[in-house]
């Protein structure tokens, strides 16, 4: 069975934590998009892991993890990250596999990424990890893939300094590389977890272009970036937070500003909303159901996983955006132009707070009644049921209402 988990907002929804949780029952975890721009935090007992390139499944003992062809890989970052988790007691040797069609991020790409963004009339605020440059080279057919390190024509076209930089990684990558299509064919009856990076609203096609990343962060990217084909995807789950965050620039219709800044500050501190990759404070906004319904559609989600609802425990009320106002007219769709999204005024519906704590719940039954009403409203509005909950940073603070490994 092939189960996909993606971010349903602007990234940082808690995908890494959910992948770690679901990986327990998976045989293999394949990351299908992005690169070291991602930042996935996983807390297991006293240990905290910060992952960027390595699939979150690595924390589960014995699982094999795969870096798919849809990824862009900086080998220096990758081996540094592996050394870091080894120092934290994770034995990764023999468990990390890399698609030979994955593209490499070469040393000059990072400074180029930053220089391009500085020159932009409207900077995107990239993570500076060379992601856009690597995907750009891929699209223009000037990229360097893992397999190309053994292609004399490509190798000889590289600058002497790039060759020198790549040389020490060649042997190690040589041991890890696979032909991913063949590898996936061999996993026929296995449970494969397909791990996304970023989020639907950062997707190159469907996100808030040009304020997006350059990979495919929606579920179709799982078929493409993990060498599967669309009909082999059995189930798609999308993780979202009970509010909305964004790092970097770009439109954010429900951003808490003005008199709401205090609330934004409170949620940022409660939720530790600072970037794992860049340390930047995340922008905070009300949960946006117009965007979430859109995300449910473009990802063809079977279910959501709702995280951070516990942050609203003890609040008098909570606000959720249920429609947009654009130039005086009410609209119910997610506009395509950044300029339109910038002008939107969110229409916020207020829900009463609840007695009791979502943080203490370990099953749907234990969720306080008022919080259940909010969940039911979200399900009805988006047409997507909530299959699972993350109610705190720990692995143990996670539970499913629907069985994840049953095809829908
Ligand atoms: P995870 O997987 C949140 C944002 C950057 C920037 C834009 C483009 O942790 O959810 P890039 O360096 O990709 O060219 O930057 O995308 N961005 C993310 N925001 N979570 C992420 O990943 C992100 N990856 C990229 O902040 O606005
Ligand atoms: Mg993150």
Q: Overview of this structure, please?
A:
The protein is of the alpha/beta class. It has 2 domains: 2-104 and 170-236, Adenylosuccinate Synthetase, Chain A, domain 1 (3-Layer(aba) Sandwich), CATH 3.40.440; 240-400, Adenylosuccinate Synthetase, Chain A, domain 3 (Alpha-Beta Complex). Helices cover 29% and strands 22% of the residues. Strands 9-7-5-2-10-1-11-14-18-19 form a 10-stranded mixed beta sheet, sandwiched between helices. Strands 12, 13, 15, 16 and 17 form a 5-stranded mixed beta sheet that branches. A hairpin with a 7-residue loop joins strand 18 (386-390) and strand 19. Helix 3 (108-119) crosses helix 4. The N and C termini lie close together (11 Å). The structure holds 6-O-phosphoryl inosine monophosphate and magnesium ion. 6-O-phosphoryl inosine monophosphate binds next to helix 4.
**Which segments are poorly predicted (pLDDT under 50) over 5 or more consecutive residues?**
none
CATH structural fold name of the largest domain: Adenylosuccinate Synthetase, Chain A, domain 1
Number of strands: 19
Q: CATH-wise, what's the superfamily of the largest domain?
A: Adenylosuccinate Synthetase, subunit A, domain 1
The helicity comes to 25-40%
Domain count, please report it.
Answer: 2
Q: What is the overall silhouette?
A: globular
Structural class: alpha/beta
Provide the spatial order of strands within the biggest beta sheet: 9-7-5-2-10-1-11-14-18-19
Identify the bound ligands. Answer: 6-O-phosphoryl inosine monophosphate, magnesium ion
Q: Average pLDDT value?
A: 97
CATH architecture of the largest domain: 3-Layer(aba) Sandwich
Largest sheet: 10 strands, mixed
Cα end-to-end separation:
11 Å
What is the highest CATH level, the class of the largest domain?
Alpha Beta
Radius of gyration: 21 Å
> In percent, how much strand structure appears in the residues?
15-25%
């Amino acid at each position: 069975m092939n189960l996909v988990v993606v971010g349903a907002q602007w990234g940082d929804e808690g995908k890494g934590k959910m992948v770690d949780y679901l990986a327990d029952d998976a045989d293999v975890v394949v990351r299908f998009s992005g690169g070291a721009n991602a930042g996935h935090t996983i807390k297991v007992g006293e240990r905290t892991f910060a992952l960027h390139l390595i699939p979150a499944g690595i924390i589960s003992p014995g699982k094999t993890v795969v870096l798919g062809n849809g990824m862009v890989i900086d080998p220096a970052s990758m081996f540094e990250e592996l050394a870091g988790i080894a120092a934290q007691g994770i034995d990764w040797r023999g468990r990390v596999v890399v698609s030979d069609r994955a593209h490499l991020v070469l040393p000059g790409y990072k400074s180029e990424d930053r220089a391009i963004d500085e020159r932009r009339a409207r900077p995107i605020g990239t993570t500076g990890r060379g992601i856009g440059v690597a995907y750009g080279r891929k699209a223009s057919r000037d990229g360097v893939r893992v397999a190309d390190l053994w292609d004399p024509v490509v190798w000889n076209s590289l600058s002497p300094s790039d060759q020198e930089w790549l040389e020490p990684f060649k042997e190690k990558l040589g041991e890890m590389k696979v032909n991913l299509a063949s590898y996936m064919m061999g996993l026929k009856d296995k449970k494969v977890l397909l791990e996304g990076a970023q989020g639907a609203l950062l997707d190159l096609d469907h996100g808030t272009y040009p304020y997006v990343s350059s990979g495919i962060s929606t579920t179709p990217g799982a078929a493409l970036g993990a060498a599967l084909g669309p009909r082999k995807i059995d189930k798609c789950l999308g993780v979202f937070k009970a509010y909305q965050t964004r790092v970097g620039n770009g439109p954010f219709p429900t951003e808490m500003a003005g008199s709401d800044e205090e609330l934004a500050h409170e949620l940022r501190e409660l939720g530790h909303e600072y970037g794992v990759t860049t340390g930047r404070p995340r922008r905070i906004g009300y949960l946006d159901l117009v965007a979430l319904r859109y995300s449910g559609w473009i990802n063809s989600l079977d279910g959501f996983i709702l995280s951070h609802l516990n942050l609203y425990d003890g609040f008098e009320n909570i606000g959720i955006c249920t429609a947009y106002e654009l130039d005086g007219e009410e609209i119910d769709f997610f506009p395509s132009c950044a300029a339109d999204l910038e002008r939107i005024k969110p229409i916020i519906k207020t829900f009463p707070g609840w007695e009791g704590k979502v943080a203490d719940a370990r099953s749907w039954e234990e969720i306080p009644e008022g919080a259940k009403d909010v969940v039911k409203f979200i399900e009805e509005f988006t047409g997507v049921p909530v299959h699972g909950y993350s109610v705190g940073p720990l692995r143990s603070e996670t539970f499913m209402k629907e069985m994840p490994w049953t095809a829908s």
